[in-house]
Amino acid sequence: MQRPIIPITLLFLCGIYLGSQTKIPLSITLGICLFFWIVCFFTLFLNKSCVFLLPLLCIFIIILAVAYYDCRNDFIPRNHIEHALGTQKSLLRVRGIIVKPPIILEGNAHNKLFLNRQSNTFGEKSHHKISFILQAKEMKTVSGWEEIFGHIRVTVYLQDEELLSGITLQELVYGQRVELLGHAYLPKTPGNPGEFNYENYLKRQKPSINSLMTILHINNIKIADPAFRSRFYSFIYALRNYLNNTIYTHAFSNSAPLISSMLLGNRAGLSVETIDTFAKTGIIHFIAISGFHVGIVIVTVLLPLRALGVNQTATIGIIVFVTIFYALLTGFNPPVQRAGIMAIVFFCGYLVHRQWDITSSIFTAILFILLQNPSDLFSIGFQLSIMATMGIVYGAPKIEAVLFKTALFVEKLQAPEERGRLFFIKKYVRKLLCVSLAAWIATLPLTAYYFHLFTPYVSVISIIVFPLFWIIIVSGIVLLFFGTIFPPFASVFAWLASATDIALESIVSTLSFLPYSHFYVIGPSLTGIFVYYLLLFFLLYRTYLSIHYLHIVLWGLISANVLTFSGIIKSRPHALKVTCLDVGHGAALFIQFPNGKNILYDAGTWHNYDVGKQIVAPFLWSEKIKKIDLVILSHEHNDHWSGLPSIIERFNVKRVYSQPYFFQSETGRIIHERLHKKNIHTAALSHGLEIKGFEPVTVKILHPSFSPSSSLSTNDNSCVVKIEYSGHSILLCGDIQKQGINTLLSEQQAIRSDIVQIPHHGSYSVNLPQFINRVQPSYAFINSQHNTVSHMTTNTLNDYHVVTTQTHRDGAITFLLNKNGIMYSVYRN
């Protein structure tokens, strides 16, 4: 069989996927694996030409992959740390060994960071932090120290004076024993549909991370005697830390984070704005270590070796060493592994006089990566890297042959002396355009599926920024070299890398604001992705499969129509759907009406993440929502509107309404100006108004009045909305407190509702019992975090026999109202 690595890798891949989707006990999987191994052995021994041998071997490889995946991911011993912790933070004392140390800045690099932080810091509390991975060994309990197993991601928050001293920090090296005192907890499972699963992300790392710990003071870290540690890994981590310090010492303070990310894969210092800007232009892979970086490093080493006349064997040995060394320095992540293996196979082929088989090299790299960590199959970076590589290898020559057929034909006829000065520039632009276009086409459905982004200009942008990117990488490598052996020379190349980085970031920022430079999209389904890649496969291999272009086009059009209209032809349920999302201390409720329209009631949180970007937008995309007909902001506190800027950037928002005082406040004026730039209509809501356009559902505003009393607090001026449909109703109360509740009660309004949002995140008010008695709800929900819900509130609801759900406990809460009654469900069981 030619290229046996290809079917073996594909079968192994299928087995990993099957293992992730099944929950078969490991003992049964190992038993089945042993059974098929015995069957294959005796089949091969008795009759090598047996027709059953090949299918039996295929089944054996799949079952072997399932067992391997289960052994690596599902085996949890009894003394595992997961059994000792919950999702709520608990104070814990742990002993263990550092297996992945933090990057600590020292000397001049440390001073530059401190001065830069002083000039940019506002407020008293520092936001600087470091992270490392601890292999837990012991945990302090009531009965004493007990043996424990598992890996903990430790985050240490540093004050400026701790950052300045840095004495303890420099001892946090690979293999160091430490005793930690901090708040430990398990990562939460997602609380909302479409939300990023951080728990799975941590478990799929290498090593698998099982829990988290936060430490608020450096004195809570005690250094113990060093454990036995590998000298090799100690050297690698120490060198990586030293090289990172070299970059921060010599480069401009505002350029060092991006240069460090490009050279060493250290993205800790990158700002969210920088990452978003590169993502919007489609070149996020430039700032993350990938196979492309490996290629540039190899070329940078190869050219001087050739110029010096080094013989072939020595050159290949040096390149193999540099490739492995660079992969280790960058953390040996999957893209670097893949590129490194391919490069080593390619150059070693010269030594044994074998022709390089790129297909076998790609599948060898895939198999090697999955053997190291089978969970990498589900890594976004792994999938994008593999598809981009295949697109470049198999698609770029086809694209060049189609788009530049005449130019290629003329080049074949030309003699070298006939080629002008611009020949190589034209060839460079053509090659880079085809490579960028091939990578973009190959990764298009994945970027739309994971990031919900469509970047049409990416090929042109890549041509513009690639020379700058090359200059930064090459000058950065020279900077690291001279920074190690002769620091005075390093400053010259540090200046070149920093100046080029400033130009790069400026260009990318400008390009990201170009009209139609990026679009936010819902993203394809898994079926759509499969159809897309099947279509590409037919296009690439149509000659081998004897398929005509017309057949492929017809099949593509039919598939596109089926995928597009399958969702449209589904009958729309005649129901009112209300979803309260879990955003911590904040509020975000999405209401879907039977006529296809929708309302977003509030979108904010007090937590330090973008609720619009990380929770509301993924939920709306999972619901296939492209536009929002109306946003109602109950009042001007951040925990009810902080996610609005991200929402209006990602969705077509028609209108934004709030209570009369909102747009008169300082916060409201800033929001109003941003909405005006987007041509989004704004208006004030007050008591008695009925919002039209959502029939047959009735949407009424019960509070506040058009001229609310100045004696009422901001919370008490919240918009109270009552929604009625098919004989059922739901009351949304915002953050009204005692005075706001009294206003509703005194006006004798029809506030009777089947479902009620408990005001002010479940906090207790003295007139809450009277309010519940008047509303007489069957169901209540509380958007909150665990420490804001009052026991007196829950006791009151229990006294009135109200079914109560809470977002921090149950995740997203969904109510479905129709003529048959009310149904509710929670996302987190």
From TrEMBL:
- Example GO biological process: establishment of competence for transformation
Major site of localization recorded for this protein: membrane
Localisation per UniProt entry: Cell membrane
Q: Would you tell me the Gene Ontology cellular component terms? A: plasma membrane
Source species, domain of life = Bacteria
Q: Which keywords accompany this UniProt record? A: Cell membrane, Membrane, Transmembrane, Transmembrane helix
Q: How does it sit in the membrane?
A: Multi-pass membrane protein
Residue intervals of the Metallo-beta-lactamase domain: 585-786
Membrane-spanning parts: 26-46, 52-69, 283-303, 309-329, 432-451, 457-482, 489-513, 519-541, 548-569
PANTHER family recorded: DNA INTERNALIZATION/COMPETENCE PROTEIN COMEC/REC2, RECOMBINATION PROTEIN 2
The entry's protein name is: Metallo-beta-lactamase domain-containing protein
Q: Which organism is it from?
A: Kuenenia stuttgartiensis
The major lineage groups are:
Bacteria, Pseudomonadati, Planctomycetota, Candidatus Brocadiia, Candidatus Brocadiales
The record's gene field reads comA
